[in-house]
Amino acid sequence: MRLSRFHLHTTKETPADAELVSHKLMLRAGMIRKLAAGLYTWTPLGLRVLRKVEAVVREEMDRAGAVELQLPTIQPRELWEETGRWGKFGGQLLKIKDRKEAEYCFSPTAEEAITDFARQELSSYKQLPVNFYQIHTKFRDEIRPRFGVMRAREFLMKDAYSFHVSDEDLAREYENMKAAYIRIFTRLGLEFRAVQADSGAIGGDASQEFHVLADSGEDALAFSTASDYAANVETAQAAAPGPRPAAAEEMRKVETPVQKTCEDVAALLGIPLQRTVKSVAFFGEQGFVLALVRGDHSVNEIKLAKVDGVGEYRPATEAEILEHLGSEPGFLGPVGAKKAIRVVADREVAAMADFVVGANEPGFHLAGVNWGRDLPEADVVADIRNVVAGDRAADGGEIRLARGIEVGHVFQLGRKYSQAMGFTVLDENGKAVVPAMGCYGIGVSRIVAAAIEQNHDEAGIVWPVPMAPWAVAICVINPKKDPQVDEAAESLLQELKAAGIDAVLDDRGLRPGPMFADMELIGIPHRVVVSARGLEAGTYEYRARRGGEAEALDRAQLLQRLAG
Amino acid sequence: MRLSRFHLHTTKETPADAELVSHKLMLRAGMIRKLAAGLYTWTPLGLRVLRKVEAVVREEMDRAGAVELQLPTIQPRELWEETGRWGKFGGQLLKIKDRKEAEYCFSPTAEEAITDFARQELSSYKQLPVNFYQIHTKFRDEIRPRFGVMRAREFLMKDAYSFHVSDEDLAREYENMKAAYIRIFTRLGLEFRAVQADSGAIGGDASQEFHVLADSGEDALAFSTASDYAANVETAQAAAPGPRPAAAEEMRKVETPVQKTCEDVAALLGIPLQRTVKSVAFFGEQGFVLALVRGDHSVNEIKLAKVDGVGEYRPATEAEILEHLGSEPGFLGPVGAKKAIRVVADREVAAMADFVVGANEPGFHLAGVNWGRDLPEADVVADIRNVVAGDRAADGGEIRLARGIEVGHVFQLGRKYSQAMGFTVLDENGKAVVPAMGCYGIGVSRIVAAAIEQNHDEAGIVWPVPMAPWAVAICVINPKKDPQVDEAAESLLQELKAAGIDAVLDDRGLRPGPMFADMELIGIPHRVVVSARGLEAGTYEYRARRGGEAEALDRAQLLQRLAG
Fold first, then answer.
1. pLDDT of B256-281, one tens digit each?
2. Which uninterrupted H or E stretch holds A194?
């Protein structure tokens, strides 16, 4: 490919409305252009990258035995009514009326459509298992589309749906898909983690997310140094604490006139923060709840909501706190409540001795507090805290934290959709059974943005080779002045093509500075400069986008380097 | 590919609601499944064919220098208001409101979106010419979707748009695209014609359609035996007639008691039909019009509408006819009208002598009529007839008729969209100029159906090799009973793969009859049978889908045949 025949349009200005670095760089490199809120045109440059991702996804899905098809993007309301999602899906579902006032939606996902297809196509256990996938345009009417293609309304998604006669077979395919996803993200050259997820609103029994690691990621992840264990911090667990030590101190009231936080109290008393306990008041389904976590920990809201008797909850009001504990916030504690309260202690707190809590009296805390002696054992002991970096993991490793961008998700859906839509097949005994389903999504267009969040520097994008629009940029110095330079560049281009290396020849006639800047901005992994001076010396200047010095290589050395 | 791992689902029943043979066969072969009216799922089998067409289109567009991008399918009303098409496009435009009540449409074509992209991207003549294309989902809300994917609402289209500083450069690219289209349809193995078209509502200066020839085609085409000239019968012209012969007969009134048609009058008088003239009464913009065509010809409504003073017209009522000609239909003619009428004679009629027309008196015709002597020369002489098979073409050849399915269209749009949307670039002199545009469409999904209309027989589809889901079907007899048969088939599959031949191995274990019927129904061009008996003899049974006897070939002969 000669760049003079390709529409490349880079800009120096950083777009005002772009927050994320990937959004800025995709605009500056000219990969996308906005048509309207959350709607982007993929320019020729952007589309090259998108197609490379798509090709890897397709190859690995095929390799895993999934079969590609394509469902319509516009789907009738009737199908979505069968599962109740026409009403439940929420505002992200773009609803449409056709000229005959019949109702449709633009598919944001396709469980209904594929189950409808399956119930027409599949009637016998002999046709199962089967895994259908498509790579197709989706639409979610985001209330606040932003971050470019990271959270666009129209986007490209790979969605796969498998059907099974048994849960065991679904579990097998689920593992098969996880392995395929690992191959996909590995091949794309991305640093990623498979993460245990809370399956949330989609429902089902087991699910896992795939995250590209990037500091700008929306999701906080916890992973262990000792295994592949990784989880969203929403659900991550540390190892259970050891046994509770014996009490060594007497309980005593200490004056803490203005010290309302654990940090301030620990500093005043000259003790480690880990010896203090934070008391947080909530009002849950069964009334007033006092949640206790260690001073250096924080309450995990999702975990707390799962505690028996808490359920849907809200922070307690000051009036409720005063009514139950007789104090103002800042000095709260589980000892000597005025009214009956439910004490929910984190596992770590339940294993503490000689700790410090608020005295339920403004200006005072209690030190040397011990369970069973100074207060009854907690009503509930559970893991209700967020993990922190340095926690011990259940596998013996150390927990570290990272931020991630979700680019894939695998679910064991079970029979939620097949049951609702009355889909059965005959099993080996001629009995009608409802097949179990799995679904497996990859945000193909989102991967492009996530890869940039993970791979960029001051000069622009730094593509992993498998996603780069071209692996090699052949920069020609003065192509119009020196025809033999252009010829040498063309012959190199053809030689690379024959070797299966995807290269672009920059014959636009720009000066070296702007030309190199463009190739760096658009992130081409390898740069080769062809100049009259180099040709005289029999060399090409090579430089890697990821850094390092420019080197003068002869043709054989150059080809070896680029093939490597 | 092993068929046991592919979801193939053929049926014997002919679907009740399918009229066209392509629709029936696509359903029976299991290429598509209906989701809702005009909305089809492409099954794994169907998608393989669709992708093959897509790949050829993409390769030839790239070869022609066009650059691929992708526009959103959902496009804002504001853009369509700029060209006035939000209101004018009609009911086929699927209009959508998002959650914020902002209005959008599902793109049925993308002149507005691409011109918006171009005006953001292109500012200098140096960036022109450029031809952007996409292969993407489109939606047209057909009032009566039918014929399967032939006239579906959601479909796959290749649409390209070029931008030029001059009309000459647009004309050059227009020819370039026509050449690309010819390569595309030739490579796909289709019999087709490039046809002059009436550009109709899309507007613009020049346009041409590409039709796949098939008896079931919606469009009637005329083409010449002497050149590439072809036209929709709506606009096709025959060669102009020779000079008018001298009058040889006297005008006379002949009795035609019940003979109201030219055929009946000619039979009664014992003269050729070509000596009679048909008089058809209309009411046009400037009043009563009598259109004259030869007895064996018919009036072409599109041509007539273009005649000066006719414009929008309708058939005249019996009352109007009586008022102007004093007769009832069946005996009408241009001689002796009661009131002033406008006579529009077809070129052929104007060149006739001694002809027969109605006498404007029930039961009578006039014979031996001659222009200038018996009636004044016609008010207008023009080509207002449909061509018929056997007409002489302007190029000296003979006109033949065929039916076609429109699968491509190229337009010179001129400045209609760029002007309306205020898109300018600076020319060489720094002056702002409005670029000329071309647009070039191919109905990718429609090609699949059109190819079947052209290529099928009693047993099913007969794919041209470039579009076939697989070029070769390797049919294994008793794969479970004879493992070495399966092994031989697998080794053949791998050998073909290495030779770049796309083959499928039918290892489903069906009996030969149903297996062969499936492979014929889905149209695989080459069939190879691998059986224990054949292996013993060292042969494979080969048969071409297009017919011919089954042959026993050894491996080398077989490979030669399949490579050829």
1. 999 999 999 999 999 999 999 999 99
2. strand A192-196
What ipTM is given for this predicted complex?
0.87
Residues of A in contact with B71 (CB under 8 A): 35, 41
End of a domain among A382, A412, A442? Answer: A382
Average pLDDT for B229-252:
90
**Do residues A77 and A86 lie in contact, with contact meaning Cβ atoms separated by under 8 Å?**
yes
Report the C-alpha gap between B142 and B148 in whole angstroms.
Answer: 12
pLDDT tens-digit profile of B536-564?
A: 999 999 999 998 899 999 999 999 999 87
pLDDT band at B20 (very low <50, low <70, confident <90, very high): very high
Give the gap in angstroms from C-alpha B114 to the nearest C-alpha of chain A.
9
Q: Does B397 touch chain A (CB under 8 A)?
A: no
Taking contacts as CB-CB distances below 8 angstroms, the residues of chain A near B76 are 35-36, 39
A68 and A209 inside one domain: yes
Answer yes or no: do A24 and A142 share one domain: yes
Q: Which domain holds residue B173?
A: 12-71+110-237+401-452
Stretch (H or E) spanning B173: helix B167-187
pLDDT in tens, B400-409: 999 999 999 9
Where helices occur in A326-443 by DSSP H, the ranges are 347-350, 416-420
What CATH code is carried by the domain that includes residue B497?
A: 3.40.50.800
Q: In sequence order, which residues have a C-beta less than 8 Å from that of residue B465 and are 6 or more positions away?
A: B189, B471, B525
Please report whether residue A460 resides in a domain.
no
Q: Which residues between 127 and 156 in chain A have a beta carbon less than 8 angstroms from any beta carbon of chain B?
A: 127, 130, 132, 136-137, 139, 141, 143, 153-154
Same domain, A318 and A407: no
Q: Is A364 on the interface with B (CB under 8 A)?
A: no
Same domain, A213 and A258: no
Confirm whether B321 is domain-assigned. yes
Contacts of A121 in chain B (CB under 8 A): 7, 9, 30, 33, 43
State how many domains chain A has: 3
- The Cα of A81 is separated from the nearest Cα of chain B by a number of Å equal to 14
Whether B460 maps to a domain, the answer reads no
Query: Would an 8 Å CB–CB cutoff place A71 in contact with chain B?
Result: yes
What gap in Å lies between CA A30 and CA A7, rounded to an integer? Answer: 9
Q: Are residues A193 and A256 in the same domain?
A: no
Q: Are residues A82 and A150 in the same domain?
A: yes
Can you give the three-state secondary structure of B315-355, one letter per residue? ECCHHHHHHHHCCCCCCCCCCCCCCCCEEEEEHHHHCCCCE
A151 domain residue, yes or no: yes
> Nearest-CA residue of chain A relative to B3?
A67
